[in-house]
Design a protein that fits this description.
alpha/beta, Rossmann fold, two-stranded antiparallel sheet, about 40% helix, globular
């Protein structure tokens, strides 16, 4: 199951009309759904935390400051038509919070070195915001790779950043959890095996049950250069002070980690791949989970994984 398709299913399942609405006209139901979306996962005002992204669009993309807000709204609403999810509705695809992660700066230093030529792969790259920030920070974009299951997001990234001619990263439509299935990009993904120095994966692992996380992690290891002992996997996800399996809004199973279980997952990856890993989780200060008061054990965390 792809990340984008999962997100779409989750939001649509949460919008099923209650039984008391079964006799409402179709237009009334549609209107009530729009109201729910507006109140829950779609906002009109640009949040303050995307100010760095607005500056990036001005300096990297050359969009005039007076036009930036309108441009963002236009692209966001195009994305909303594809996937009506809070990630889109709240402009989270424009968050550049990763720039505060020490692992981002470690990755940047490696990518700026002329030799050896490090490469970075962004899983679930969406519109490629991390890749564009790296490009703005001076990285040769031929060293950058991105994977997403939604091809329209990859295309909208060029529209958002207005860089189709100058951005030379390799963007691939693919699904790590469906190897060998038609339309999952597996043959293209195989071409990346053994070539990556760094893998970024934000809001990825926490969407899946333990066994699917394990499958994805084993696949990620295949992307990494086996001769490079400085390889790194990093990103953000939702963790928990009480790790374990949770049931998602659509009845799907998800596993949330603390430090101990995150290491345990990567110990299992090591056994399956003949490798050894040191896995780290750090809670993000002043950032809880997206709980709406339902579960105060959830925590937003940053993670990294290194060869042991």
């Amino acid at each position: 199951m792809g990340v984008a398709s999962m997100r779409t299913k989750l939001i649509l399942s949460s919008l099923r009309p209650p039984s008391r609405c079964k006799n409402m006209a179709a237009d009334d139901i549609h209107e009530s759904h729009d109201a729910v979306l507006r109140g829950k996962v779609y906002i009109d005002t640009l949040p303050a935390d995307i100010l760095p992204a607005k500056k990036l669009l001005e300096k990297y993309s050359g969009i005039r400051s007076k036009d930036v807000d309108r441009h963002i709204h236009h692209v966001r609403d195009r994305m909303w038509e594809i996937q009506p999810h809070v990630f889109v509705g709240h402009f989270r695809f424009l968050s550049l919070g990763f720039t505060s992660d020490p692992c981002y700066h470690a990755a940047l230093r490696r990518l700026l070195q002329p030799k050896p030529a490090a490469r970075l792969l962004d899983l679930g790259c969406c519109v490629g915001q991390l890749l564009r920030q790296l490009a703005f920070d001076g990285v040769d974009t031929t060293r950058l790779y991105g994977i997403d299951v939604e091809p329209r997001f990859l295309d909208l990234g060029y529209e958002l950043f207005r860089d189709r001619r100058k951005f030379k990263a390799t963007l691939i439509i693919g699904d790590l959890l469906k190897p060998g299935e038609a339309g999952t990009g597996e043959e293209t993904l195989k071409a990346l095996d053994g070539r990556m120095s760094i893998v970024h994966a934000t809001s990825f692992f926490h969407l899946f049950a333990w066994e699917d996380q394990l499958r994805a992690a084993v696949r990620i290891v295949r992307f990494l250069d086996p001769s490079d002992y400085g390889v790194m996997i990093f990103g953000r996800q939702v963790g928990s002070t009480m790790p374990g399996e949770r049931k998602g809004p659509n009845g799907d199973r998800r596993y949330l980690h603390d430090q101990e279980t995150w290491q345990a997952l990567w110990d299992e990856v090591g056994k399956l791949t003949g490798t050894s890993w040191r896995a780290i989780i750090d809670p993000l200060e002043n950032e809880g989970g997206n709980t709406d008061g339902i579960d105060d054990t959830l925590r937003r965390v940053r993670f990294s994984v290194h060869r042991a």
